[in-house]
Amino acid sequence: MAAVSGRPIDVHTWSTPNGWKIPVMLEECGLPYRVVPVNIGKNEQFAPDFLAISPNNKIPAIVDPDGPGGEPITVFESGAILQYLGRKTGQFYPTDERARVAVDEWLFWQVAGFGPMLGQTHHFKIYAPEKVPYAIERFTAEANRLYGVLERRLEGRDYLAGAYSIADIATVTWAKLNFKQGVDIAALPNVARWLETVLARPAVQRGLAAI
C-alpha cells in the first residue's frame, strides 16, 4: 500500500451520480478530503479556474496535494480518479493483473455505457423542455438492456468483479436512481440485492451525503 498523507484532497464536484463517486471512494479509503462545490446548475463548471483542473468542463475533478513524488496532481474524469485513488491507497483496485482486468472491464462498462445512457434517459424523461417520444423510448429501452447486463453479471456474485471494488462504487451511484430510469427493479433480483448491500455500507452513505 502506498503511503497516504493526512493532507486533504480537494474534490470539485456536485450532487450527481458522477459527482457522488469520489466522496464515496474517499470515505471507503479513509482519506481526508474537502468538497469544493461546483454548481452545474449555475454553469460554474465553465469557470476558468475549474477549466484548469478539468479540461472537459465536467465534474468531478480532484487536486491531491500529495501526488506522485510528493508533488500536487490534478485528476479529472471519474474513472481515472477512482483508479488513481485505488493505486494510491492499495484499496478496492487489485494489483493482480487478472483481477484488475475484471475490475477495469466493469468500470469502463459503467463510464462508457451505463452512466451515459442513463444520463440521456434522465434528460429526455425528466429534464428536456420538449418531450421527444422517440428519444424517451430509445434511451429507456437501452437503460433496461444495460440493467439486464448487470442482472446477468450479478447472478451468483456478490459484486461486479470479485471483491467489492471501484467498479461497484462507479455503478451504484447511477443504479440507485433506477426509479428515474423507467426500470422495474423488482424484476431484477440480483441487482436489487447488490444495490441493497452496497448502499448499506456506512462509507457509501457518508459519501452520498457529503455533497
From TrEMBL:
CDD domains, A to Z: GST_C_YfcG_like, GST_N_Ure2p_like
Oxidoreductase recorded as keyword: yes
Domain GST N-terminal: 6-93
InterPro entries recorded: Glutathione-S-Trfase_C-like, Glutathione-S-Trfase_C_sf, Glutathione_S-Trfase, Glutathione_S-Trfase_N, GST_C, Thioredoxin-like_sf
This enzyme's EC code(s): 1.8.4.-
Residues of the GST C-terminal domain: 96-211
One MF term in the entry's GO annotations: oxidoreductase activity
Keywords: Oxidoreductase
Matching Pfam families: GST_C, GST_N_2
Protein name according to UniProt: GST-like protein
